């Protein structure tokens, strides 16, 4: 009887917690854990998944055209693809934009994005715990998340590049 009374008394608080912290939030990947599986269709119509990138170092970049910090991070990601693409770095940009309209095309052209892009479904965003942008994950050739970078600044850029260089030499 005591448990029922306790649940009734705290039901509103429990409901708020369930709404604010859904079960998916508990499955968010951490560095050192396997990446959640994902599937997406790129803007060129190619289906990609985590398995597509097995055997490669993958930089997974969650961004949006309306995200001001993304305008700073995306050029760095473009540069990383130029510098390390021939050594095996793969990059996939996952857009949190609602559509691929003119604003999206303009963003891609203006920033000269040189890697595949795909819309990030709500399921994919939830699986990766995306609550703000930009978020970049470095995933090793075995599919393990090696680091998660939230937001972007020069220090994040340097750290990401050092990790990618190290992982590429380990392959």
Automatic annotation (TrEMBL):
Keyword tags: Signal
Gene3D superfamilies in UniProt: Glutaredoxin
Statement: the UniProt record of this protein carries the keyword Repeat: no
GO molecular function: antioxidant activity; oxidoreductase activity
Span of domain Thioredoxin: 29-171
Residues making up the signal peptide according to the UniProt record: 1-25
Record bears the keyword Metal-binding: no
InterPro entries hit by this protein: AhpC/TSA, Thioredoxin-like_sf, Thioredoxin_domain, Thioredoxin_ResA/DsbE_sf
Protein name as annotated: Redoxin domain protein
Native organism: Pelobacter propionicus (strain DSM 2379 / NBRC 103807 / OttBd1)
């Amino acid at each position: 009887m005591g448990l029922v009374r306790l649940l009734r008394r705290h039901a509103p608080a429990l409901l708020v917690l369930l709404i604010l912290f859904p079960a998916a939030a508990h499955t968010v990947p951490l560095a050192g854990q396997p990446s959640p599986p994902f599937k997406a269709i790129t803007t060129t119509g190619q289906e990609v998944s985590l398995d597509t990138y097995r055997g490669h170092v993958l930089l997974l970049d969650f961004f949006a055209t309306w995200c001001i910090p993304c305008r700073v991070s995306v050029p760095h990601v473009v540069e990383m693809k130029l510098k390390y693409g021939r050594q095996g770095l793969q990059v996939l940009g996952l857009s949190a934009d609602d559509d691929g309209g003119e604003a999206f095309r303009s963003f891609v052209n203006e920033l000269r994005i040189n890697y595949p892009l795909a819309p990030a479904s709500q399921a994919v965003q939830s699986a990766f715990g995306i609550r703000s942008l930009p978020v970049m994950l470095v995933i090793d050739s075995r599919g393990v998340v090696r680091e998660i970078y939230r937001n972007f600044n020069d220090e994040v850029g340097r750290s990401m590049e050092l990790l990618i260089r190290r992982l590429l030499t380990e392959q």
